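Researcher: Next entry in the queue.
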Amino acid sequence: MRIYSRAQHFAVNAFLLFHIFAITCWCIPIRMPLFELCRSTVRPYLRWSGLFQSWDVFGPEPLAINSHLEAIVVYANGERKTWAFPRMEQLSLTARYFKERYRKFEESLQRDENDALWPDVARRIARENSSPSTPVKTVILIQKWSFIVPRSDGSYVPEPWNRRTLFGYGVRPWDLP
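Model: Structure for this entry, 177 residues:
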């Protein structure tokens, strides 16, 4: 019995050390080959566990883009509706607290390397907007973005919005409840 508890103790400590190492490598906002190598080593674990973090706001080069996703929902009868992910600037402080995870998910979803998620998101949107009397036929994911260009006085002028179709999904009968 004592051997089992030692093995258990060792396994827990090994996991904790690896986890602390992974989080540390991932969160240090330094762009050097050694750190990049560490990040690529721990990336599969952090992505799988959902613990990855983006330091775009605080890092040496913050994102200079304002972006969000929308979906055009087309019903079987031909009607169309625009559906949007929650946008933090349009929510109350309390709602932002509870919906922040959607912003982070939406941010990740816009990257082409995460395109494997697009069909599942389209199915979810179809289920959310469908009813037996008006089933959804098609969901089209649209990315909208505007660059943030700072002026010399510290202010900025909003750039025009750009738009890109990410994905179109033909909803199948078994996708809906």
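Model: Residues 2-27 form the longest helix (26 residues).
Researcher: Noted, moving on.
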